[in-house]
Design a protein that fits this description.
By secondary structure, this protein is an alpha/beta fold. Helix content is 48%, strand content 13%.
């Protein structure tokens, strides 16, 4: 009996140990792996894959920028982490990089398609575009794909454009095209402009961007109806980061931050002016070299990008030192006699005096604005004040606030500037009537001229002064980010 009792106790202990061990293993197995969102936050880094280009991501004069970059960077700030960017050499590398989790998601201007949905999960859309067939103005305009019977049309391999051509090829049996992996969409448009290709297909936003640089580019017709761009996430059971991105996109659409990003990059390129752009290109080559040293000098003294000062000078006078307006302002920067004197110059017609005085005046306007206004809005406001005066700008900001807009954001104020011409609005302002629509166009023109000047400089198409001091590289950035919404006017 004793032996039996001892055997029973031993058996109980063994069973207890087995149960304890099993429970330990079970508890260990129940330790959950951190979600993707938790991993991103704990690692302090959000990794995206994108492609280089003006509609996605590029290194501008003052650092990384681009619509896709700015939106992804805002998401990283929302998560409290830093953004790390990977760039794909080829478009058809992006989706595999996402699928293989080499990045958390793609922010690369990808069009939502059914075929792509099989490999990745798309976020809600944040931009609408269409596919366009592009040709050069000197060539005959094709009215449809029936007019394109040789292989003179080129598209990027792996793009939604190539996929669409494959999809509709049965409807156009004579249609031929070539696909390339070696160049970007921007380079493809450049080939059309240089007559190396007759036609290309590109997204409408990319065509708009590039028409400023290649003014002979024309849109023959839209190949598709509206299509949507979205971020691309990997498939799988972990939806945490994806769902957070969905909430973020919903938020930025509602609070206006998405509109601010789009306005920053696209707001000034809606109205393409072929004749004006061609004239500007010609004047860059023939007139700008006479004054570029002065723009650099004014840049160094006032900490303002010389491209911006040159753009103001072109908008004011087309870089004509003898220019005189109907109101009596003169010179390249079109200074009044009183303003020139305040800036320390008696001879306002002399090119150097005009440029130096204009640079100093613009710097003062920038400084006079409330400190909470961030760039690039701060610069756009200063330019508007250069045109219509700080008082009228202040009136426009008050009207903006009265109508429920943000008086510290150019995207809101520019919609209200034309109201300074309407009696029902200007009768209640301090400074009265002003040609607000002209101020709006003034700023948007300068933004376009600025972009073209920067692009030509980066591509070696503007000869720089031989002596540019080190201080001239310390310039006022019009691309500093600041998206905080502050509702007060002053």
């Amino acid at each position: 009996m004793k032996f039996s009792h001892l055997q029973h106790r031993i058996s109980q202990r063994i069973i207890t140990m087995v149960i304890a061990t099993s429970m330990g293993l079970t508890l260990t197995g129940c330790v959950e792996t951190p979600s993707m969102l938790e991993q991103v936050k704990s690692q302090g880094e959000l990794v995206i894959v994108t492609r280089n280009g003006p509609t996605t991501y590029y290194e501008g004069p003052f650092g990384a920028t681009g619509p896709e970059y700015d939106l992804a960077n805002l998401f990283a700030e929302h998560l409290g982490v830093t953004l790390r960017v990977k760039t794909a050499t080829r478009l058809n590398e992006i989706i595999p990089m996402v699928a293989e989790r080499e990045a958390h998601f793609a922010a690369a201007g990808l069009t939502i398609t059914d075929e792509r949905r099989k490999r990745i999960r798309f976020s809600s859309a944040y931009q609408t575009i269409s596919q366009q067939v592009v040709y050069r103005a000197s060539d005959t305009r094709p009215k449809s794909l029936h007019d394109i019977t040789d292989d003179s049309i080129e598209v990027i391999a792996g793009s939604s454009h190539a996929a669409h051509l494959h999809k509709i090829s049965r409807e156009y049996p004579a249609l031929k095209w070539s696909e390339t992996n070696e160049i970007s969409s921007d380079e493809l448009l450049s080939k059309v402009w240089h007559k190396e290709r007759r036609y290309a297909i590109a997204d409408s936003n990319n065509v708009q961007m590039n028409q400023r640089f290649y003014p002979e580019l024309r849109v023959a017709f839209d190949l598709t109806g509206p299509q949507q761009l979205a971020w691309a996430f990997p498939l799988g059971d972990d939806h945490s980061l994806y769902l957070e991105a969905q909430q973020f996109l919903k938020m930025v659409k509602k609070n206006g931050q998405l509109d601010q990003i789009m306005e920053r990059h696209y707001g000034h390129i809606q109205d393409f002016d072929y004749v004006g752009t061609r004239t500007f290109m010609r004047h860059i080559n023939k007139r700008l070299p006479r004054y570029i040293d002065y723009f650099h000098e004014a840049s160094a003294q006032n900490n303002i990008d010389w491209h911006l000062l040159a753009a103001v000078g072109y908008q004011e006078s087309h870089w004509n030192a003898r220019a005189v307006s109907p109101t009596g302002v003169r010179g390249i920067m079109m200074l009044t006699r009183a303003t020139a004197a305040d800036m320390g110059y008696t001879n306002r017609v002399k090119p150097r005096n005009s440029i130096m005085g204009g640079g100093r005046y613009l710097a003062q306007l920038i400084k006079r604005l409330p400190k909470r206004i961030q760039n690039p809005d701060r610069t756009w406001f200063a330019l508007a004040a250069y045109n219509i005066g700080m008082g009228h700008l202040h009136d426009a900001r008050i009207i903006t606030q009265t109508r429920g807009g943000n008086p510290d954001k150019w995207i809101d104020v520019k919609e209200n500037l034309p109201l300074l011409m309407q009696k029902r609005w200007y009768k209640n302002t301090k400074y009265g009537y002003a040609r607000g629509n002209e101020a709006l166009q003034y700023v948007e023109n300068i933004r376009s001229y600025y972009d073209i000047l920067v692009w030509r400089t980066e591509n070696g198409k503007i000869e720089q002064p031989l002596k540019v001091t080190q201080t001239q590289h310390v310039q006022h950035s019009i691309f500093e980010r600041g998206l905080t919404v502050v509702p007060a006017v002053m």
